[in-house]
Amino acid sequence: MNFFTALDIGASGLKAQREYLNVVSMNMANSRTTRTAEGGPYRRKSVSMESSPVLSPFETAMDQQLNQQLRGVTVRGVVSDTRPFKEVYEPNHPDANSKGIVKYPDINVVEEMVNMITISRSYEANAQSVDSAKRMFNRALRIGMGQ
Which residue of 48, 128, 137, 145 has the smallest Cβ count within 10 Å? Predict the structure, then answer.
């Protein structure tokens, strides 16, 4: 594994966690949204991730056998949650039906906060791996300069 491969793996994790954090913040911002452009209440969203090769096919063919197993992470897509909506009796709400029931997205703010903390820790771990790779590279340069 070379220096840039280590950075690529860390960068793929940073990018995936950033996208996941955007989805979580969107869920929290729309936790009380009863009307969307698609019609109906907002649907909670989550991120689907998958491992992805870090090396290009040419690099994989030329590289050692051990490095061929190196994988990063990419966001496969954003999927809508299929949880049923919460029904709340609010007869004065403009989106209430004839029985006075309003449908809200089933978003638990505590669950979203836990997801946000998990994402934050994962982001920090990826940033630390990038920083460690940079420090190792700087040390190798100093060795090469005779210091």
Answer: 145
